[in-house]
Amino acid sequence: MPGGEVMRTGLRFGIAAVWLANGLLCKVLHLVPRHEAIVARILGPRFAAPLTVLIGVAEIVMAGWVLSRYRERLSVGLQIALVLGMNVLEFLLARDLLLWQQLNIVFAGLFALLLYYYGFRLPAAPASAR
């Protein structure tokens, strides 16, 4: 496996791990109750618990999509939009509940840049390696 492909594979697994950890651990298993509090603040408390689980399941599905490499650029574009969109909403409506408060938006921007690099700048694997 050439060096570029090692980096691409490492990034793919790292990105998938971020989605899996946030979805499964933080939301579905409710190990970080702050996530449900953020959902309650933005979407209302009545359905915050089931919506948080639903968001978590969607994040787990995203992890699987990342690992599958199916329509990779579409996946990356959607991830960038979701990360930036979710984090702007959280920044505007629930900043006090965020782990790093106003710095969360900086980390979201850095993650979006990493996604962009992975999906659009890092050379893709040759078709024979897929």
Could you explain how this protein is built, in words?
By secondary structure, this protein is an all-alpha fold. It has five helices and no strands. The longest helix is centred in the first third of the chain and has 26 residues. It has one domain. The mean pLDDT is 94. The protein starts with a helix and ends in a 9-residue tail after the last helix. Helices cover 75% and strands 0% of the residues. Keywords: Membrane, Transmembrane, Transmembrane helix. Pfam families: DoxX_3.
- Provide mean pLDDT, rounded: 94
Run of helices and strands: HHHHH
Percentage of residues assigned to helices: over 70%
Q: Please tell me how large the radius of gyration is.
A: 16 Å
**Poorly predicted regions:** none
Largest sheet: none
Number of strands: 0
Number of domains: 1
Distance between the termini: 12 Å
Estimated share of beta-strand residues: under 5%
Tally the helices. 5
Principal-axes shape call: globular
Organism: Hymenobacter chitinivorans DSM 11115
Pfam families: DoxX_3
Transmembrane segments: 12-32, 47-67, 74-93, 99-120
InterPro entries: DoxX-like
